């Protein structure tokens, strides 16, 4: 019997795949637990429509990420940090502080986990922080670290 999986099933397949299973396994395991539905004409058409919709949404997300990356190119976010003599800083600027500054100054929600900063920023100056906006799109945000 052909089944369209509604969820990932270990050792069988991933969500949305069409798999061939024995009739008993389908009747006693897959269908009662709502892990899949029988691959009828209507269900195959529904799956096709869902895949088309998912592709459209993914394409829109990619375009939005590209647009955001383009917007971030010419923006500068200022982060203040305490410093002592000779510009020596106390502590470092983390991605959490950068994300808060972006939200406050630019009004954008950026995930701190998507920013790539190794060991924090520990000196005054201007830095370029790479941001993973989408699996296929990397953006760059300029961060200016100044004395408080």
TrEMBL record:
Gene name of this polypeptide: rplI
Family the UniProt entry places it in: Belongs to the bacterial ribosomal protein bL9 family.
Record key words, sorted: Coiled coil, Ribonucleoprotein, Ribosomal protein, RNA-binding, rRNA-binding
Limits of the Large ribosomal subunit protein bL9 C-terminal domain: 63-146
Report the HAMAP family cross-referenced here.
Ribosomal_bL9
SUPFAM superfamilies, per the entry: L9 N-domain-like, Ribosomal protein L9 C-domain
| Coiled-coil stretches noted in the UniProt entry, renumbered to this chain | 44-82
The molecule here is called Large ribosomal subunit protein bL9
**Keyword rRNA-binding: yes or no?**
yes
Q: Which organism is it from?
A: Roseburia yibonii
Pfam families hit by this protein: Ribosomal_L9_C, Ribosomal_L9_N
Top-rank taxon = Bacteria
Indicate the segments forming the Ribosomal protein L9 domain, all copies: 1-46
Quote the NCBIfam families the UniProt record gives. Answer: L9 (TIGR00158)
């Amino acid at each position: 019997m052909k089944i369209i999986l509604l969820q990932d099933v270990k050792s069988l397949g991933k969500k949305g795949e069409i798999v061939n299973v024995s009739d008993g396994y389908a009747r006693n395991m897959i269908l009662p637990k709502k892990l899949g539905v029988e691959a009828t004409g209507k269900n195959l058409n529904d799956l096709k429509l869902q895949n088309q919709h998912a592709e459209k949404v993914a394409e829109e997300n990619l375009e939005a990420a590209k647009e955001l990356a383009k917007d971030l190119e010419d923006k500068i976010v200022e982060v203040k940090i305490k410093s002592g003599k000779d510009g020596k800083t106390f502590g470092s600027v983390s991605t959490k502080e950068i994300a808060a500054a972006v939200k406050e100054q630019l009004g954008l929600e950026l995930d701190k986990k998507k920013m790539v900063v190794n060991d924090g920023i520990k000196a005054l100056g201007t830095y370029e922080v790479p941001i993973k906006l989408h699996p296929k799109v990397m953006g760059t945000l300029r961060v200016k670290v100044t004395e408080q």
